[in-house]
Amino acid sequence: MIREEIISVTTTGSAGAATGATNSGSAIVGRILAIYFDYHASTPNTADVTVTERVGTVDRQTICVETDSTTDVMRYPRRAVEDNAENTVTYDGTNEIYEPYVTVGQIRVAVAGGDALTAAVVVHIYYEADD
Length: 131
Fold this sequence. Notes:
This protein is an all-beta fold. It is built from no helices and eleven strands. Helices cover 0% and strands 57% of the residues. The strands form three sheets. Strands 1, 3, 6, 9 and 11 form a five-stranded antiparallel sheet that branches. A hairpin with a 2-residue loop joins strand 4 (48-55) and strand 5 (58-66). The radius of gyration is 16 Å and the shape is globular.
Protein backbone atom coordinates (compact mmCIF):
# COMPACT_ATOMS: atom_id res chain seq x y z
CA MET A 1 0.00 0.00 0.00
CA ILE A 2 1.33 3.45 -0.90
CA ARG A 3 1.24 6.01 1.90
CA GLU A 4 2.13 9.66 2.43
CA GLU A 5 4.02 11.26 5.32
CA ILE A 6 4.07 15.08 5.48
CA ILE A 7 6.97 16.78 7.25
CA SER A 8 6.98 20.56 7.79
CA VAL A 9 10.22 22.30 8.77
CA THR A 10 10.29 25.66 10.54
CA THR A 11 13.61 27.50 10.44
CA THR A 12 15.12 29.92 12.97
CA GLY A 13 18.14 32.19 12.78
CA SER A 14 19.37 35.08 10.70
CA ALA A 15 18.56 35.67 7.03
CA GLY A 16 20.45 33.32 4.75
CA ALA A 17 21.73 31.27 7.70
CA ALA A 18 18.55 30.00 9.38
CA THR A 19 18.30 26.27 10.06
CA GLY A 20 15.72 23.76 11.18
CA ALA A 21 14.99 20.05 11.19
CA THR A 22 11.93 17.87 11.75
CA ASN A 23 11.54 14.10 12.00
CA SER A 24 8.60 12.08 10.75
CA GLY A 25 6.05 11.24 13.43
CA SER A 26 7.01 7.58 13.39
CA ALA A 27 9.33 5.18 11.60
CA ILE A 28 8.71 4.65 7.91
CA VAL A 29 9.12 0.96 7.19
CA GLY A 30 9.13 0.45 3.46
CA ARG A 31 10.45 1.80 0.17
CA ILE A 32 10.66 5.54 -0.57
CA LEU A 33 9.00 6.05 -3.95
CA ALA A 34 8.87 9.84 -4.30
CA ILE A 35 9.50 13.06 -2.40
CA TYR A 36 7.70 16.34 -3.10
CA PHE A 37 9.36 19.56 -1.93
CA ASP A 38 6.89 22.44 -1.35
CA TYR A 39 8.78 25.64 -0.50
CA HIS A 40 7.44 28.70 1.34
CA ALA A 41 7.18 31.65 -1.05
CA SER A 42 9.81 33.54 1.00
CA THR A 43 12.40 30.76 1.24
CA PRO A 44 15.64 32.15 -0.26
CA ASN A 45 17.44 30.36 -3.10
CA THR A 46 20.36 29.72 -0.73
CA ALA A 47 18.35 27.07 1.13
CA ASP A 48 19.61 23.48 1.17
CA VAL A 49 17.25 20.66 2.14
CA THR A 50 18.52 17.21 3.13
CA VAL A 51 16.29 14.17 3.61
CA THR A 52 17.79 11.32 5.64
CA GLU A 53 16.73 8.12 7.36
CA ARG A 54 17.29 8.55 11.11
CA VAL A 55 17.55 5.70 13.60
CA GLY A 56 17.72 6.99 17.16
CA THR A 57 20.04 10.00 16.95
CA VAL A 58 22.03 8.75 13.96
CA ASP A 59 21.38 9.64 10.32
CA ARG A 60 21.75 6.24 8.68
CA GLN A 61 21.52 7.17 5.00
CA THR A 62 21.00 10.28 2.90
CA ILE A 63 18.01 9.81 0.61
CA CYS A 64 17.81 13.12 -1.25
CA VAL A 65 19.43 16.59 -1.23
CA GLU A 66 18.09 19.78 -2.83
CA THR A 67 20.80 22.46 -2.98
CA ASP A 68 20.17 26.20 -3.45
CA SER A 69 16.61 25.63 -4.60
CA THR A 70 13.17 27.10 -3.96
CA THR A 71 11.39 25.45 -6.85
CA ASP A 72 8.60 23.10 -5.82
CA VAL A 73 9.57 19.76 -7.28
CA MET A 74 8.88 16.01 -7.18
CA ARG A 75 11.93 13.75 -6.91
CA TYR A 76 12.14 9.97 -7.30
CA PRO A 77 15.28 9.05 -5.32
CA ARG A 78 16.98 5.77 -6.16
CA ARG A 79 20.19 4.09 -5.06
CA ALA A 80 22.48 1.73 -6.90
CA VAL A 81 21.94 -1.94 -6.02
CA GLU A 82 24.94 -3.60 -4.35
CA ASP A 83 25.95 -7.24 -3.96
CA ASN A 84 27.13 -8.74 -0.64
CA ALA A 85 30.68 -7.48 -1.27
CA GLU A 86 29.36 -3.90 -1.70
CA ASN A 87 30.02 -3.89 -5.44
CA THR A 88 27.50 -2.07 -7.62
CA VAL A 89 25.34 -4.50 -9.59
CA THR A 90 25.05 -3.80 -13.31
CA TYR A 91 23.06 -5.17 -16.24
CA ASP A 92 26.09 -5.51 -18.50
CA GLY A 93 29.17 -4.37 -16.59
CA THR A 94 28.51 -0.66 -17.11
CA ASN A 95 24.80 0.12 -16.68
CA GLU A 96 23.92 0.20 -12.97
CA ILE A 97 20.66 -1.13 -11.56
CA TYR A 98 18.73 1.30 -9.33
CA GLU A 99 15.99 0.66 -6.77
CA PRO A 100 14.12 2.74 -4.17
CA TYR A 101 15.67 3.37 -0.77
CA VAL A 102 14.55 0.89 1.89
CA THR A 103 13.96 2.47 5.30
CA VAL A 104 13.09 1.29 8.82
CA GLY A 105 13.67 4.52 10.77
CA GLN A 106 12.21 7.99 10.95
CA ILE A 107 12.68 10.35 8.03
CA ARG A 108 14.46 13.60 8.94
CA VAL A 109 14.20 16.76 6.87
CA ALA A 110 16.86 19.39 7.61
CA VAL A 111 17.11 22.89 6.16
CA ALA A 112 20.25 25.05 6.16
CA GLY A 113 20.99 28.44 4.61
CA GLY A 114 17.39 29.67 4.80
CA ASP A 115 15.52 32.55 6.39
CA ALA A 116 13.53 32.30 9.63
CA LEU A 117 10.17 30.98 8.43
CA THR A 118 7.29 28.85 9.63
CA ALA A 119 6.95 25.94 7.17
CA ALA A 120 10.05 27.01 5.21
CA VAL A 121 9.58 23.73 3.35
CA VAL A 122 6.88 21.09 3.55
CA VAL A 123 8.09 17.71 2.33
CA HIS A 124 5.71 14.97 1.23
CA ILE A 125 7.21 11.48 1.45
CA TYR A 126 5.43 8.85 -0.67
CA TYR A 127 6.35 5.32 0.31
CA GLU A 128 5.30 1.73 -0.18
CA ALA A 129 4.66 0.29 3.26
CA ASP A 130 5.80 -3.20 4.16
CA ASP A 131 2.57 -4.29 5.81
